[in-house]
Each structure stands twice: as structure tokens, then as C-alpha cells.
Amino acid sequence: MEEHSKPNFSDLPLELVGKIVKETDLPGRLVLRKVSKYLRALVDKQTPRYKHIEIVVNSKCIQLDLEGILINYTNMKYDNCTVGIPGRKPKKVNRDNMDVMFDDLMTFMSNRSFYVEHLKITTTDDASYKKFIILHPKLLRSKIEVNSLWIKVNMDQELRKVSDFIDRSKVQKSECHWLEEESRWNLRECMELVVREGNNFVGEESYVISRKDDLPWMKKYGKKKKEYEESLQPSDVVKREVHVPKELYI
């Protein structure tokens, strides 16, 4: 009897393979790109236009949300990490979680035609923040196009350094959250929301003053977000209008 070999993905007609790659979601493309040089080239030819990407930067676990699919890069001992993708067995990688996350981001962000409708970035601890702002200028050499940008940083972390790889001339809406020291005993939780209107950005800036011991207490006892928001009195919130010429904002 004649022995038949098992069907192979690479044996499919080129046109059919191209259609499969085109319909594959973002995490699927990350996997396909690592299969062969041919599939890598095919994935890289696709126009990388996406609706939503969120990055939460943390030393223990970096979360990458690619259009609703959450990928976890969890740090382990000796600069190893595990990569967890829904529906797949966690994969151990002998590299730091930040390096692995950037490798995945680079598979599509390095494409000059990359575009994302909404990009959200949160940096938490100072160690991962410093590593993030050191790595992205080395890897993302060209600015990426983002329509709507949302950023959150802690005290002493700079919004501009977190978002240096973004082409701000193309941003239509920007929402930024940050902490700063109001006094020895108080912190200001600040928020600025600006929307492009012709050649200017218009919007509002607001902040609420909270005691410095509120944040550690909330972290230690797991105070619920709803309870925390209810504890803020309207009189504590100060708002002012923002009207920034495009050239100054960018």
C-alpha cells in the first residue's frame, strides 16, 4: 500500500495561505510569524491596522491586550518568563518578560504602515518603567500612528518618555493620568483630556487631592475601586479648561 504523508500547512496553495493569514487574529499572527521565514514574510506584508491595543507594564507580569485577547508575560527566576495566551499551554522562555513582550510588539509595530485606533499604556513600578523607556527607543525607531491615546503613570514617571515612540502629530484624542506631590502629606491625582480641534487641542484638566497614606492603605487592604471613588468629595476636584496650540502640545 502506498503511504501518504500527513497534510502540511506549507503545502497549501499560496493564495489560500495568504487568505488564512489575512483572517488570523493578532496573537495568531505572532505565532505564525515564528513558524518559518516564508510565513514571517507573509505576515509582515499584511497591513497592520488594529482597533485596540493595551499594555500594562509591571516587573512581575506584563499584560498585552491585543484586540480583546490578553497575553501575560510572567517573570520567573533567573530572567526567565512564561508567555500565556488564551487557549494555549503557557510557554517558558529563557528571557526577561520585557524583552519577549517587545519582540512580539516589534512583529507588527516595526512596520511603517502600522496604525492603531486606540492605544492604552499603564506603567506601574519604577523598575519596569525605567526598563520600558530605555528599550522602546532602541527598538521602535520610527514613530507609530495612533488615533486615540490613553496613558497612566505613577509619581516621578514622565508621560512624554512613555509615549516617545508615538507620532503625536497624528493623535486626535489624548487622555493622560498621573500622580504628583501636592505637599508633604498630600498627592494630586491629575487627569488631562484633550481633543484635536483644527490646529489646536482643547479639553480640560482636573485633579483630586488625596492623603499620601490613602494609596498604601488601599493597596494593603485591597480597598475596592468603587469605595475609593465614592470617598472623593466633589469639592476636592478642581477643573480648568485646556487650550493648547498643536505645535506646543506635540
What topology emerges from the helices and strands here?
Layout: H1 14-23, H2 26-33, H3 37-45, E1 49-57, E2 61-66, E3 69-75, E4 81-84, E5 91-93, H4 97-109, E6 115-123, H5 126-139, E7 145-152, H6 159-162, E8 173-181, E9 186-197, E10 200-211, H7 214-221, H8 225-230, E11 237-245, H9 246-249
Parallel strand pairs: 1-6, 6-7, 7-8
Antiparallel strand pairs: 1-2, 2-3, 3-4, 4-5, 8-9, 9-10, 10-11
Helix pairs in contact: 4-5
Give a summary of the structure in a few sentences:
The chain is of the alpha+beta class and 250 residues long. It contains nine helices and eleven strands.
Notable characteristics:
250 residues, alpha+beta, 11-stranded mixed sheet
Describe the structure.
- This is F-box domain-containing protein.
- It is a single chain.
- The chain has about 250 residues and is an alpha+beta fold.
- It folds into 3 domains: about 40 residues; about 120 residues, no CATH class; about 80 residues, no CATH class.
- The chain is built from 9 helices and 11 strands.
- An 11-stranded mixed β-sheet has the order 5-4-3-2-1-6-7-8-9-10-11.
- β9 and β10 form a beta hairpin.
- α4 runs parallel beside α5.
